[in-house]
Amino acid sequence: MKKYFAIFGLILVTVIWGGGFVASDMALGSLSPFQIMTVRFGIGTVLMGVISFKHLKGIKKEELYAGLLLGCTLFLGFACQIVALQYTTPSKNAFLTATNVVMVPFIAFIVCRKKVNTRGIVGAIMAIVGVGVLSLNRTLSLGFGDGLTLVCAVGFALQIFFTGEFVAKYRATVLNFIQMGTAFLLSGIILTALGEWKFTATIQGWLSVLYLGVVSTTLTYLLQTSCQKYIDETKAAIILSMESVFGTLFSILILHETVTLKMILGCIIILAAVLIANSASGSNDEILVE
Q1: Which of 1-15, 136-150, 219-233 has the highest mean pLDDT?
Q2: Does any domain span residue 276?
Q3: Looking at the predicted structure, is the pLDDT value of residue 282 above 60?
Q4: Strands (E) located in the chain
Q5: Does residue 274 form part of some domain?
Q6: Residue 288 in 3-state DSSP?
Q7: 185: buried, middle or exposed (CB in 10 Å: 19+, 13-18, 0-12)?
Q8: 180 close to 217: Cβ distance less than 8 angstroms
Q9: How far is Cα 258 from Cα 239, in angstroms, rounded to an integer?
Q10: 230 found inside a domain
Q11: Nearest to 73 by CA among 171, 166, 206
Q12: Torsion 55-187-163-22 (CA) sign
């Protein structure tokens, strides 16, 4: 029963994250990327501090190191994603981010020597094809925004993998507080370096950041770390990747984004790659990478 509640919880996370693409795009109308990041993770740090206050006195050294690592990967993913949104569309940003799913098994192989299944290889190849169809232009070059989104996918793949590794050993609330605080600190450092402490956001901008900080960050990452206790990292990745579907849907309904046939084809290929890569976790196919 806990497993089914965990699956439902991760699905709820994907819906909220899908709305996050739209909220980020709206916030960028009056705020810079690292202003958004600093406020977003500042809110997350305060709220997670309140939630985990009773546990913070007994933080173990191992929990601190784990939270710092999660925070760095979280920062990498979101920083690249929101900067990329200035150069690409929310729907492309969402589906390119979803390629993190096919990266997770390979990260598990590199870090823990977990074997990569045949379907994982096929999924990776299909994802590359899908990215090409979705993002390559007539000169077969990748746009800056799309390329940066792929870097963001690496960050999220690392975050998903390490979350799966750490939640079985350490307290989810403590991990969340430390990773939020780390992402907030890194965002603040870059914000200071850029000299962007003057905020001139509109009401829509502040509401968007409030959604990102309270709902799309604090609530979702608390849910994610709690739910991943009962689901392995690869299956969690496939569920979480569905944010791309909701992100595209919300972009069309709210932002009235135009979707081309080429984009649809690329998105379908990437989604198929994600499904195939996920099925690898339960398959007994011959191992191709050892």
Answers
A1: 1-15
A2: no
A3: no
A4: 116-117, 287-289
A5: no
A6: strand
A7: middle
A8: yes
A9: 26
A10: yes
A11: 166
A12: positive
pLDDT in tens, 235-279: 776 777 777 788 888 888 898 888 788 878 888 887 887 777 766
State residue 29 phi and psi, 5-degree precision. -70, -25
pLDDT of residue 89: 85
pTM over 0.85: no
Say yes or no to pLDDT of 91 above 70. yes
Domain that holds residue 56: 2-113+143-257
Tell me if 193 is assigned to some domain: yes
Residue 213: Cβ within 10 Å count: 23
Cα–Cα distances in angstroms (integers) from residue 32 to residues 28, 79, 120, 195, 198, in the given order:
6, 11, 37, 11, 10
Lowest-confidence range among 41-45, 138-142, 283-287? 283-287
Report pLDDT for 139: 59
The alpha-carbon radius of gyration of the chain (Å, integer) is 18
The whole-angstrom distance between residue 149's C-alpha and the CA centroid of its chain comes to 11
- C-alpha span between 27 and 33 (Å, rounded): 9
User: Which of 251, 212, 247 has the alpha carbon at shortest distance from 36?
Assistant: 212
Specify the number of domains making up the chain: 1
- pLDDT per residue as tens digits for the range 183-228: 999 999 999 999 998 888 899 999 999 999 999 988 887 888 788 7
- In the numeric block, the tokens 């098994």 are attached to 105
Which residue, among 169, 275, 228, 167, has the nearest Cα to 7 in the 3D structure? Answer: 228
